[in-house]
Amino acid sequence: MDITEYMQDIGRRARAAARDMARASTAAKNRALAAIADNIDAAQSELLAANARDLADARARGLAEALIDRLTLNPARVTAISDGLRQIMTLPDPVGTITDLAYRPSGIQVGRMRVPLGVIGIIYEARPNVTADAAGLCIKSGNAAILRGGSEALHCNKALAACVHAGLAAAGLPADGVQIVGTTDRAAVGELLRMKENVDIIVPRGGQSLIDRVMQDSLVPVIKHYAGVCHVYIDDSADFEKTFAVALNAKTHRYGTCNTMETLLVSEAIAPRILPPLALLYRDKGVELRGCTATRAILPDAVLATDEDWRTEYLAPILSIRVVAGLDEAIDHIYRYGTGHTDAIMTEDITRARRFLREVDSSSVMVNASTRFADGYEYGLGAEIGISTDKLHARGPVGLEGLTSQKYVVLGDGHVRA
Amino acid sequence: MDITEYMQDIGRRARAAARDMARASTAAKNRALAAIADNIDAAQSELLAANARDLADARARGLAEALIDRLTLNPARVTAISDGLRQIMTLPDPVGTITDLAYRPSGIQVGRMRVPLGVIGIIYEARPNVTADAAGLCIKSGNAAILRGGSEALHCNKALAACVHAGLAAAGLPADGVQIVGTTDRAAVGELLRMKENVDIIVPRGGQSLIDRVMQDSLVPVIKHYAGVCHVYIDDSADFEKTFAVALNAKTHRYGTCNTMETLLVSEAIAPRILPPLALLYRDKGVELRGCTATRAILPDAVLATDEDWRTEYLAPILSIRVVAGLDEAIDHIYRYGTGHTDAIMTEDITRARRFLREVDSSSVMVNASTRFADGYEYGLGAEIGISTDKLHARGPVGLEGLTSQKYVVLGDGHVRA
């Protein structure tokens, strides 16, 4: 197979299908989502069988257990996938929404209409649920999708693709509205990243090496999720009870998620009082503590943190702690070491809260709340295709709206420019 | 001078200044704008002298008259520049605006705050007014700017830079908030386009060759204005009187602007009745008509249009005309040949108007109004840094809002994720 030719063909089909997807009625898109969900439920045994083949291959190739866990389907996970599609059905259709339609002094009415981006390329790793989630979000937002899943999940993704295509057909939508790259050749990714004419945006979902490769090679604009080195700063005005709850939840609710706190910053005025009880809570959960010199003066058991620690997304039961002079030094630390993901302040002082909200340049900035809230569902987006740490176009959790753009609409009555 | 080193230094300074610009109060930014405007008025004779040097160089190098006209300053143009800055002062400050702040079932409040993009690189050609306009828009939107004007305007741009820097200083803002690349070495542009770490977005303003070069080489995301092949489609339901006014205005109000109509599409049902009187109006203005075979059957004097004509932005008193079967063929033509800039329909039929608005995928889509309205001032943006024909981030006229992004803000009271 000539990979270039194969991918170019996918791109051309996607571009052609994108016109029909953009015009599709809300009812047709919802019919497609319902049909896909039903097809997935009905195909549960085929999906599990396909998954079993993928798992056997993965084990034979000696893949890591964590990866195998992400790859594994079971009846409950299949149901979660179809439920996810039905959830997307219930979300408002953003396409065609007109906002801010107002008369101008010239007499014309000017507003903005939300429109699909066009063709979305999604590159992801093992999880088969991304295939259905991404297809569902692209369908609902009126976009055509090109999905390039991990080679580990190929059989399962092909079985899911059959469910998706049958659902699109049932709703009278083009089969090419969602295409799954049916080759495990890695060159296909390179081709996808160069298809500027026929792909409007690339969304990579996966580990650092995938993101790095996409960033380096893509000629298509990318909405990416980079590392999440998230901070909680405990100001000396913080309420201790709230702080214990938030600082514990932000670190220990789940260790492997991008919105988990990795560095705790503590105002020196309260560090001697708040760090010892906090350390007990963390040690109770088995969290390893690493700290600056001032931290170690209070918590002698903490390992000395290096400059590298401040930059590290542990994704593990490890927490680095730094004592800072106050708000300014906390913001400076976040500016220097943060990744622009999610940062929180614990404070009862409204002036400092306002400064933190304004001055910390991250996709989510919080006051007295756990960084773990940085999530599309928690924010009310209904579903998310990822979390963007970029500034352009979409920032933070990206839902249906992030897969759309706005064009201007102008209504007149024969108006001309003077 | 080592250009790489020189530009890297500019990038680092811009990144550092961007923090202060982002934090600057609305009052400080307005003080800076007022001071810059006053400085420009006070420096009128120096600006004209610097411009005279540029003009002398340009004439010695045999630059085209059109370019020399764009380069030329006179007292009225200097006043227009300072007035433009005072106009930006009056615009609302987008930075810090919080929208959609609402309680979620978990108890947290989630909203979005508008924030500056960071560092904006603007690459432009002869017009010295862009230096002040772009500086003003970047200051008001809380961004740091790196301005790389055309070498033809270097003396004048340096004189304007002095006014800008004195104004920033008067308001307590960092001088590096607006930097002007002080070398005419073309390699500086290449460096700017590769400074991913320290430049957040590139806005090229100029002709096709500049845009092409930026598109090809930029590693930084670009907001660009591509060609404007704008269409007016006259449906058979159109009101003739409105159509005469709009079709004439869209083509003849100004020939050299991007929102000028280049192709007129006419429903075959009314072409025999409307084209002859329209042709008289165009001929009266000296507009050359080129047409498809069906057009020439009605207007025998029209030149036969080639496929190339449908793709051409004439920027001249030339109009191509195509007779189409109806709305579907008109939309197909725009899809195939358009540049996604601005397209209009003339119709009294609300169903066709709704379809045109929804299905034509251009940055501005209009009903019964002249394409010439596609403009930041006409849309109420107050000022524009350009018109984007891209879909991502900003589409259509780009004003202060297009130079910002939105981050999520979350307010809690010790809330944790369950």
Any overview of this molecule?
- The structure is a homodimer of 418-residue chains.
- With 418 residues, chain A is an alpha/beta fold.
- Helices cover 44% and strands 21% of the residues of chain A.
- Chain A is built from 15 helices and 16 strands.
- In chain A, strand 4 (144-148), helix 7 and strand 5 (178-180) form a beta-alpha-beta unit.
- The mean pLDDT of chain A is 95.
Break the fold down into its secondary structure elements and pairings.
Two copies of one chain form a homodimer.
Chain A: H1 3-23, H2 26-42, H3 44-60, H4 65-71, H5 75-90, E1 98-103, E2 109-116, E3 119-124, H6 129-140, E4 144-148, H7 154-170, E5 178-180, H8 187-194, E6 201-205, H9 208-217, E7 230-234, H10 240-252, E8 261-267, H11 271-284, E9 288-291, H12 293-298, E10 303-304, H13 307-310, E11 318-324, H14 327-337, E12 342-346, H15 350-359, E13 364-369, E14 386-388, E15 396-398, E16 404-415
Parallel strand pairs in A: 3-4, 3-6, 4-5, 7-8, 7-12, 8-11, 9-10, 9-11, 12-13
Antiparallel strand pairs in A: 1-2, 2-16, 14-15
Task: Describe the structure using short key phrases.
7-stranded parallel β-sheet, 15 helices, globular, homodimer, 4-stranded parallel β-sheet, 418 residues, alpha/beta, 21% strand
